[in-house]
Amino acid sequence: MENIYPSQPPPISPNGKIPHVMIVGAGLAGLFLAILLDRISVPYEIYERTEEVRPLGGVMCLNANILPAFEQLGLIDELRKVSLQSRTFNIYTGNMEKIGIFGNDDKLSESIGYDNHLFSRPVLYDLLLSHVPAERIHFKKKVLSIARNKEGAMIRCSDGTTYHGDILVGADGANSSVRQSLYKLLQDKGQLPDSDTKGLSKCNIFMVGTTKPLDPEKHPCVSEPTAILYQMIGEGTPYTWSSMTVRNHQICWGVVKQLGLAESQNEKFRSSEWGPETSEAMIKDVRDFRIPTGTLGDLIDATPKENTSRVFMEDKLFETWHHGRTVLIGDACHKLLPSSGQGAVNAMQDAVILANCIYELKSTAEDDVAEALRDFKEQRYPHVKRQYEASKMSAKLLYGQSMSADLVYRPQASFLPLAPTRGTLNILPQKPSKSSKYYAQNTF
Q1: CATH of 14-84+121-198+315-441 among 3.50.50.60, 3.30.70.260, 3.90.1720.10, 3.40.50.150
Q2: pTM for the predicted model, two decimal places
């Protein structure tokens, strides 16, 4: 029932302006938001449904569309220490015939102002996790339902506990329990758009992994000072595959299988969670696929089982991102295909803009919270929609990490000194803050 608290009342916010934020989901979006909230002294707690978070074993690439925020937070030097710079992306057929190279020459890099930073996803997760106090994260807290009234929001967990706050953030991924609970409330009231009643589309399967540290004598590419990226496009096969070197003499690899309509219908009833359990059949199919350094099987054999994951490539842009005191960020409200490599970036961009809107919050009254959450969606939706369409186009042309990102959109925290404007590109302006002492800088 939406307007009933079955346990203790919500906490009283100091002076009625600083909200208590409940973040559901301890993934990249939730952790990044927590770090940002900490900088404006906004109290928060994170609730994670699993016993521990096991991030994907695949590769990630960050560039100018999120690195200024890392620079603001003082995290960019840490990121550089665990990443490799990347400028070239080599494309081959499955028979090892070279198709072409995507790359950043010196002129392009100078205009962008930042290099591509390539690393395995667990590396970024561990970096962000190290900046969030352990006592702020509560594990084994699967959310069963949410509720709200004018005084605050509430979550009820599967272990019988309830928690209260002023703002509830669903950062709990594509299968978000916060979104499901919120949408049920709205659907019962007849307030949910029809498009939001439909599930995520599933058309492909994606398997990724990260090897253990490899012997440089057997794998010379891992000793290169910059990342080496290869994308293979199969001929006469539904598969494409890739490999990328990262730090610590490791290689991240990925395989995409295009599903036919019948196969897609069969697969949609299976779990779409990341995990190693469902990978064995696919591994048998792809072991002999060639890569410039040997075969995909060589990398698979060098990959611990727990570092291998298989999941649907899903996409969906939801229309409803917020209601009352509840807001969704990241995959909970927009699931992008991994072909553009921008899913995690957009989730962290969400965190930046949401933190800005919370910073500008007039009070913790429900109307003011709702206004701040509307502002968040108005700022983010156009950019996410553009990236959503770009990811669909990239998927049609190439499966893998794309080097083409929306690098002129670089959201920053309005409550921190702005990172210097790097490169020669004309950067998109950001909504200025009227509360920040850095307001005069917010002209980009």
Answers
A1: 3.50.50.60
A2: 0.88
